[in-house]
Write a structure and sequence with these properties.
Helix content: 10-25%
CATH class of the largest domain: Alpha Beta
CATH superfamily of the largest domain: Zn peptidases
Number of domains: 2
Number of helices: 7
Shape: globular
Strand content: 25-35%
Distance between the termini: 34 Å
């Protein structure tokens, strides 16, 4: 049986593709395309059957060069998602089997038993404009979707907000996701955050949300971390080093003028095999002692609310070597007097719990609860949010 691999799909990314057979088993191997970055991570591809026999053989799917992906310390924790075309729902694949080639290279193997004629496979659950539009629809138009500028590739940059018609000052929260475009858990957690905020009525803060910050990277299937010409999350200095950072800085000024600016959160995902739980990167205590102290208080409240979703060492300060010495989003926010942090959500699992979109959204909902409690001066323990707001499993 003959198959082909298609990468001209939404968020497509795969390279070094080869297709062969082992007996009656088709063998399809591929690698994650770094798309100009120093490390790879994201992949997304479609397998299409070219013949129409009634009997469908197994497919051996091989991910090449996982050691060149960021954080691939345990390839068994690379758990891609798969769906049948055209109407299937994304679901997690089983853990792959690491194999070593005769010359010592590593690869990860999955066996797809009797696959459908057309299937999509991605590193993690994709999130793009269709999911964003579903969020707006599902929350009955609570969130206003506006264009605030264009990307370096001339794509519209969008923002969600709940500005409404009220002129009464409210505490303001600025949230952003996908500065590194392949880090889709960040968007799903933000999705849950925004769905929960939409149910809070008058208790909701004044929210300005950038859900797809690196829009070009999202659409083009980039991983987006440390890529050239500049990592978006290292481009927030003066002057900004990317047009998107300039757009978001100026949009943040609009947010400042309409609320009591208080908190800024940046939603990310870590290395591809991390599984200890969600954790926060706080501002440097040496550079921003006041912001670090206040952010530590908020982190304690978020960690308590996340409960089993949180890593044991939840509040951290980044100590890894950076390829850039220019300010990131958190540093820019600290310079503006905001409580700020980055939140890192694993791609595939926390402990032995394999993560679904429902888990991501629940984590985001809990973060929203913690933020509102913090703004209200409350320091209670973890609560269980309503479960009817998450939608799909």
């Amino acid at each position: 049986m003959t198959w082909r691999v298609v990468t001209d799909v939404p968020y497509g990314n795969a390279c070094d593709i080869s297709i062969g057979t082992e007996g009656d088993v088709s063998v399809i191997s591929f690698a994650s395309d770094p798309h100009g970055g120093p490390e790879s991570l994201w992949f997304c591809l479609r397998l299409e059957k070219l013949t129409s026999e009634e009997e469908t053989e197994s497919v051996k799917l091989i991910l090449k060069y996982p050691e060149n992906m960021l954080g691939a310390s345990d390839p068994r924790k690379i758990r891609p998602v798969i769906r049948s075309q055209p109407t299937g729902n994304w679901r997690r694949m089983e853990a792959g089997v690491p194999e070593e080639t005769r010359d010592g290279r590593l690869q990860v193997v999955w066996t797809l038993e009797r696959p459908d004629d057309s299937i999509d496979i991605a590193f993690c659950y994709p999130y793009g404009l269709p999911e964003l539009e579903s969020l707006v629809t599902d929350t009955d138009g609570y969130w206003k979707l506006d264009r605030v500028g264009v990307s370096q590739g001339a794509r519209p940059l969008v923002r969600l907000s709940n500005y409404g018609d009220s002129q009464e000052p409210r505490d303001g929260v600025f949230v952003i996701a996908r500065q590194h475009s392949g880090e889709t858990p960040g968007s799903w957690v933000l999705d849950g955050f925004l769905r929960r905020a939409a149910t809070m009525g008058s208790e909701a803060p004044f929210v300005w949300a950038i859900p797809l910050a690196n829009m070009d990277g999202v659409e083009e299937g980039h991983y987006g971390k440390d890529g050239y010409p500049y990592d978006l999350n290292r481009a927030w200095g003066t002057p900004p080093m990317r047009h998107e950072a300039l757009v978001y800085r100026r949009d943040m000024e609009r947010w400042f003028s309409r609320c009591r600016p208080a908190i800024a959160l940046d939603f990310h995902a870590p290395g591809c095999c991390e599984s200890s739980g969600i954790y926060a990167f706080l501002p440097s205590p040496e550079k921003y002692p006041e912001a670090h102290a206040e952010s530590s208080r908020l982190a304690m409240r978020i960690g308590d609310e996340l409960d089993t979703y949180a890593a044991e060492d939840f509040a951290r300060v980044a100590s890894y070597a950076s390829r850039w010495d220019t300010p990131g989003f958190t540093s820019h926010c600290c310079s503006k007097g905001l409580i700020s942090m980055a939140l890192e959500t694993p791609y595939s699992q926390i402990g032995d719990v394999v993560l679904t979109r429902r888990h991501y959204r629940e984590a985001g909902s809990r973060i929203a609860e913690a933020v509102v409690d913090f703004l209200n001066g409350e320091t209670g323990g973890a609560s269980t949010p309503k479960t009817d707001i998450y939608g799909i499993v």
